[in-house]
Design goal:
Peroxisomal Thiolase, Chain A, domain 1, five-stranded mixed beta sheet, four-stranded mixed beta sheet, about 35% helix, globular
Length: about 325
């Protein structure tokens, strides 16, 4: 499998910071209740006038700047989201316009919920490897404005999510080992009989079922990635899970019998940003100097559908 090099990362969050105490003013909850069950302390919500496209473009600009390359070198733009501002055009096309990407660079969205960034990354890598693109680099984005689809009277969901975007600039590389596994099953879809019309616009989640699914699937996914690469947990520097819930990550850590320092966490600052969470975490790690040459990371996403996917990234 042809590898990829991540040459730049970026992130962007909206201006409105919402703490657990802020949420407790209009829903029956508390800072202690949220922290002990999720590990989340705060999140960001889009303020009036802020859009998913603005977040995605902001993260993409930051990634280009960190990569030190100009927009005209981008050959592809893939955005992962389930909260695009419009049914069409795609979020990726809005970023394409905002950054003045070349006309020769295709732009489209993928929707795999919280597995979205993994899916977008593999999609971009495969297209780069296919040889049909004009540019050397691909822009891969995970971006969400989940606050617009939250029922703010439901404490079981409104406390869990946040808005934000993360992005990566990638190129093909034979010197950076890469392995990917993905899967899905559709038995967790909420469907209405006969395709009947429904104003079901809020996020709905069965928390206990998601916990069971993640606790079983994520460790298996990590091991599948490692097996495909011929590596063990001892060979890995970090595991970056989708930042859904601190308890889930702790459970995964125990099932893999891995030390806590290998698992990067930042859900305390952003909450669950779905397709953006892994990309935001990678940019934070990059900013902190954790992604040194030779660093090996397994990234694992899991989300609605159900979907899951994991990648081995080498820096």
């Amino acid at each position: 499998m042809t590898g990829i090099e991540i040459v730049g990362t970026g992130r962007c969050v909206p201006s409105r910071l919402v703490t657990n105490d802020d949420l407790s003013r209009f829903v029956e909850t508390s800072d202690e209740w949220i922290r002990t069950r999720t590990g989340i302390a705060q999140r960001y919500f889009c303020a009036e006038g802020e859009s998913n496209a603005q977040l995605a473009a902001g993260a993409a600009r930051a990634a280009l700047e960190r990569a030190g390359i100009s927009a005209e070198k981008i050959g592809l733009c893939v955005a992962a989201t389930f909260t695009a501002d419009h049914a069409m055009p795609s979020l990726a096309c809005e970023v394409h316009e905002a950054l003045s990407l070349p006309e020769s660079a295709p732009a489209f969205d993928v929707n795999a919920a919280c597995t979205g960034f993994i899916t977008a990354l593999e999609t971009a890598r495969s297209l780069l490897a296919g040889g049909s693109l004009k540019g050397t680099y691909a822009l891969v984005i995970g971006s969400e404005a989940i606050s617009r689809v939250l029922d703010m009277t439901d404490r079981n969901t409104c406390v869990l999510f946040g808005d934000g975007a993360g992005a990566a600039v990638i190129r093909l590389s034979d010197n950076h080992a890469y392995h990917c596994v993905m899967g899905a099953r559709g038995d967790a879809s909420l469907l209405h009989a006969g395709g009947a019309g429904c104003d079901e616009r809020f996020v709905h989640m069965e928390g206990k079922a998601v916990f069971r699914f993640a606790s079983e699937t994520v460790p298996k996914c990590v091991m599948q990635v490692l097996d495909s690469a011929g590596l063990t947990m001892e060979d890995i520097d970090y595991v970056v899970c989708h930042q859904a819930n601190g308890r889930i990550i702790d459970h995964v850590m125990k099932k893999l019998n891995a030390p806590a320092e290998k698992f990067y966490k930042n859900m305390q600052s952003y909450a669950n940003t779905s397709a953006a969470s892994i990309a935001i975490a990678l940019d934070e790690m990059n900013e902190k100097g954790l992604l040194k040459p030779g660093t090996r990371i397994v990234c694992v996403g899991f989300g609605a559908g159900l979907t899951w996917g994991g990648t081995l990234l080498t820096f």
